[in-house]
Design goal:
120 residues; alpha+beta; two-stranded antiparallel sheet; two-stranded antiparallel ribbon
């Protein structure tokens, strides 16, 4: 088990590098969220076929016309957290626009020509 001081220092370092966002309390810190950068770094480092996952999702969006995260999850058979992250990545890069619903569904309402050209 990691001593509390080392754990706090490790969490501070992860926050310093933008990999997590710590939520501090009067006692110091309470919880954290993994940032977009943190998730992307994890996937690039520990998921060997991450590039293929992005391509599979892109193909499903462009060629199969799948336009929500739940349909994409069924099609590419990956965890929803990975699907959601890839959709955020595609949106951040200007390839799609999406709206996030209260029920957890993400609906793609715009596909840029740049995404279609990525497949050529």
């Amino acid at each position: 088990m990691l001593p509390e001081g080392e754990l706090k220092e490790s969490l501070d370092m992860l926050e310093h590098y933008g990999l997590i966002k710590l939520h501090r309390t009067l006692q110091g810190w309470g919880s954290y969220n993994i940032t977009f950068l943190g998730m992307n770094t994890f996937l690039q480092t520990y998921v060997p076929d991450y590039g293929q996952i992005i391509e599979d999702i892109t193909i499903a969006i462009v060629n199969k016309r799948l336009d929500d995260n739940f349909s994409l999850q069924q099609d590419v058979n990956r965890p929803i957290v990975v699907i959601n992250h890839v959709l955020d990545l595609l949106e951040k890069n200007g390839h799609i626009k999406q709206v996030k619903m209260l029920d957890g569904r993400s609906k793609i309402y715009y596909i840029a020509p740049t995404l279609k050209r990525k497949l050529k």
